[in-house]
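Continuing the series of single-chain predictions for the mutant panel. This is the parent chain; the variants come on the following pages.
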Amino acid sequence: MIKQVVVMRTDLNMRKGKMCAQAAHASMKVFFDRLVTDARTDDRGEYEYSFKATPEMVEWIDGAFTKVVVGMDDGDAIVRLAQRVKDAGLPHALITDNGATEFHGVKTVTCLAIGPAKAEDIDVFTKELKLL
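Parent structure:
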């Protein structure tokens, strides 16, 4: 099975809407980070982009978009997890909020998306984390 896991910080006491927005940012950023930067416009003036996708990303896009959200209560630990996931070569995106609506103007790491990738590859890093 192919899935994406979003690891959300639970120690920040974010509002539910804020958490949802941060998870969406993370999920999308995995793909935005892979955009090819030679965007061009078509004959209607709309931009065309391409991105480099893993086979698992393509399967996920064409499939059920399986997504799981789990919690972690330590900002430093989520940064370390992001590095471990990066070292393993998995697609991922670490989100740092600008602090405009919460966190008193302080930039704050809020969540990490891992995948889309094979469930067994992601589970190595997330199987001990609790579902939100």
